[in-house]
Design a protein that fits this description.
Structural class: alpha+beta
GO molecular function: hydrolase activity
Distance between the termini: 32 Å
Oligomer: single chain
Strand content: 15-25%
Number of helices: 8
Strand order of the largest sheet: 3-4-5-6-7-8-9
Shape: globular
Protein name: Inositol-1-monophosphatase
Catalytic activity: a myo-inositol phosphate + H2O = myo-inositol + phosphate
Number of strands: 14
Helix content: 25-40%
Pfam family, one: Inositol_P
EC number: 3.1.3.25
Largest sheet: 7 strands, mixed
Radius of gyration: 18 Å
Order of helices and strands: HEEHEEHEEEEEEHEHEHHEEH
């Protein structure tokens, strides 16, 4: 990977700025919905895989701001697509947790990351409802509203709180539910919050001890995985942990990362 001349601190600042601006747009729409505003809703892979007009508005804003602040750098977005370039590529999820957003649940976020050679070097995850700002730059630590983050250190698996998520495909959801049922008896408990970027941030903050999910897209983890790693988590991305499945994303506190990984494999992670 060639990243000579990349200023991770500057890229982080841009990510924070742009994600914060988009989060303000999303928050205004979310509050408007609570007051009766109607928002157009469509579907993608199936009836449960929704996209709203606000997702598109948020991504258009992010693309516009990045074009002004970082002209010529390509953008890969969940709604608008795109492809990686030779230098910095911006990876955008305009609303991660769209179903939560649509239902009024406050657990959703705007995620913006800068990648070079497919590796995240800076990123921000901003929560519209709370205003919390998660951020990281490669080699510089991870932060929540300016406070440095550090992962938890559970002493054993029985005290480990694990986050996960489920796919939109009914057949895969069935396999994931069987996997989760097998895991439940081996750990403290399981959480399913509905926004991958924020689950990864939760690992960074020690709010979760670990997180595993299959089938994520690059925009789901681009910022959050960097934040988790910079807070000290052991992170495995799709294709790097075949014992957990070819499309598994895994982040865990080092104290339990290896034994939990073995338990996940025993519970059938690779078959999900």
């Amino acid at each position: 990977m060639s990243d000579v001349g990349v200023d991770e601190s500057l890229l982080k600042s841009v990510a924070v700025q742009v994600a914060t601006e988009a989060a303000a747009l999303v928050k205004e729409a979310w509050e408007g919905m609570a007051g009766g505003r109607e928002v157009a809703v469509g579907t993608k892979s199936g009836d449960t895989d929704v996209v709203t007009a606000v997702d598109h508005e948020s991504e258009r804003l992010v693309r516009s701001r990045l074009a002004a602040l970082r002209p010529g750098e390509p953008v890969l977005g969940e709604e608008g697509g795109g492809a990686a370039g030779d230098g910095v590529t911006w990876v955008v999820d305009p609303i991660d947790g769209t179903v939560n957003f649509l239902y009024g649940l406050p657990w959703f976020a705007v995620s913006v990351a800068a990648q070079v050679g497919g590796e995240s070097v800076a990123g921000a995850v901003v929560e519209p409802a709370s205003g919390r700002v998660w951020s990281a730059a490669r080699g510089q630590g991870a932060f929540l509203d300016g406070r440095r983050l550090s992962v938890s250190s559970p002493s054993r698996l029985e005290l480990t709180l694990v986050g996960t998520g489920f796919a939109y495909s009914p057949s895969r959801r069935m396999r994931q539910s069987q996997f989760a049922a097998s895991l439940l008896g081996r750990v403290r408990d399981i959480r399913r919050n509905g926004a991958a970027s924020l689950d990864l941030c939760a690992v960074a903050a020690g709010w979760l001890d670990a997180y595993v999910e299959h089938g994520l897209n690059r925009w789901d983890w681009a910022a959050g995985a960097l934040i988790a790693a910079e807070a000290g988590a052991e992170v495995q991305l799709a294709g790097t942990a075949p014992d957990l499945g070819q499309d598994a994303t895994y982040a865990a506190a080092p104290s339990i990362a290896e034994p939990l990984r073995k338990v996940l494999a025993d519970c059938g992670a690779a078959e999900v």
